[in-house]
Every structure is written in structure tokens, then in C-alpha cells.
Amino acid sequence: MSAEKIKCLIIGSGPAGYTAAIYASRANIAPVLYEGIQPGGQLTTTTEIDNFPGYPSGITGNEMMEDLKKQAERFGTDVRFGSVSSVDLSERPFKVSIDDEKEILAETIIISTGATAKYLGLESEEKFKGQGISACATCDGFFYKGKDVAVVGGGDTACEEASYLAGLCNKVYMIVRRDVLRASIAMQERVKNTPNIEILWNYNTKEITGTPFGGVNGAILAHKNGTEKKIDIHGFFLAIGHHPNSEIFSKWVKTNEEGYIFTEGKSSKTNVPGVFAAGDVQDPVYRQAITAAGSGCMAAIDAERFLSENK
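Above: the chain sequence. Below: its structure as C-alpha cells.
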């Protein structure tokens, strides 16, 4: 089977991928975008989005991603369903296999495969995703203003999430499986000195409770001494880390210890000329739809300039 030759391949379809596609198609470099196993990315698991500019009444994650997809297609992006199964970035054009069935030769690649939030693996977790369970306090905290919520985790991220939520919510429980926090001393002090944060030491979450239409209403916690505790909450926030979806590229592109792709300075350039990264796969800090979209714009501009310089 002969390989398909293209100028720009975009891998992933969240805000970063679709924004890259909009800019790349307007730059006339005929991008092809593969949506991956979760078309639309993490935002499709979010119910309401209120912090993305331009939507004064809010919008659902699915609607926003559909809007971005239509906008990319309007300018000529070839959006396809499928996943990248292997890559060879040793030389240009880069060899990319789609679902082990189709081969593409790409002059440039934009990696926008995102990151996946780590979950506890509870059945009740899956049941209430988007109905009180969240992995982003900055994204969803506003919906729990004046209510009681819980944050799972003991590192810097958990402390940051708890501190942020404490400014919005009535009470914040921190569920910590050990008797110490792993966070920096400064973050520990901030949490311990915030009156409406209560740290529950040596607890694991056994079950999240709720109703089909009302969402989360509580959690059952198991102490390491064998006792159980029930807390009444409306929001359950996971802060036990994210996993960047970069494994398939890690043989070629530089990543940090957690797997986030390194980009050069204030650019989307990886260590492989012609390969760019955008969105959460290279951003362990902000992880917002708006910052992902911005980095997608950068990646498309970087790719277009690279193609112009390497005709």
C-alpha cells in the first residue's frame, strides 16, 4: 500500500489540535487531523464551561469542541477518525501509522494528544463523572460556590486546588492517604492556615455516593485503622496527577520525568525539527482550554514557518 504524503499532520483533537487546524488551514498548508480515541479531548467529559472567552452564557464541552471542529473544517482541515499506532521521527518526511492500517508521510507534525487525569479507579467515580466529580478546580470550582467539597491528594497540586476551592466553597475536605503532605512547606502552611480546609489524614476513598439526577452528595472514606467515615459533599476533586499522552513519541522527542514534552523557549518546537507540541501534552502547569488553544495557534504558525524555510 502506498503512503499518503501530506504537509502537516495534527495528532489529537482538543482545543490545541482544533486551533492548530484552524490556523494551519488558513495558512494554506492543508492539515490533516486525526481525532484519536477521545474525539474532542478531555473537555468532552466536562458539562459546563464558563471560563472560555466568547461564551457569555457558558457552553458544554461537547458543544465547544463541535464548534471548533466545524470551524477547522470550514477552512479546509481534513478531520478524520482514527488513532496513531506508531511513528518514526528519525527523518523527514515522518512516517506515521494510523490504526496499524494506513501509512502517512508528513512534512510536519503537531502533537496535541493532551493529558489524562489520574483517577482512583472506583466504579462510583465513573458513574458521577461530570456530575460532581472533576479533575480541575479552576475549571469547575465555581459551580460549587458556597457548598462543601473534597479534594483527594497530598501534593502541591492538591494543596493548590484546595486553596483555590477554599475561596469559593463553604468547606473543603482534603483526603490524604498518609499522615503527611508531600507538598512544599509553603503550600502546606497555606493549607493548614486556611480555616475552612479540614485535612482528613490516613484516609482512602472507598465510595462516592449520589443520585442519578442530583449528582454527588457524599463520600465514604476508609481509615487505615479499619474504621469508616461518611462526609457530605457536592463536589469531589481529584488532584493525584495527570498522565501526558506522549509515550508513542518519547523515543524521539524529549520529555521530562513525568512524560511532558519539552518545547523550546516560547515556542512549540520540540528537539526534532519539524515536530511541534501543543496543549496539555507539553503543559504540566496551566492545563486550561484557553492556554491549550493558544499553544495550538503557536504550533500552526511554527509549522507554517518551518515549511516555508524548508521548501
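DSSP finds seven helices and 19 strands in the chain.
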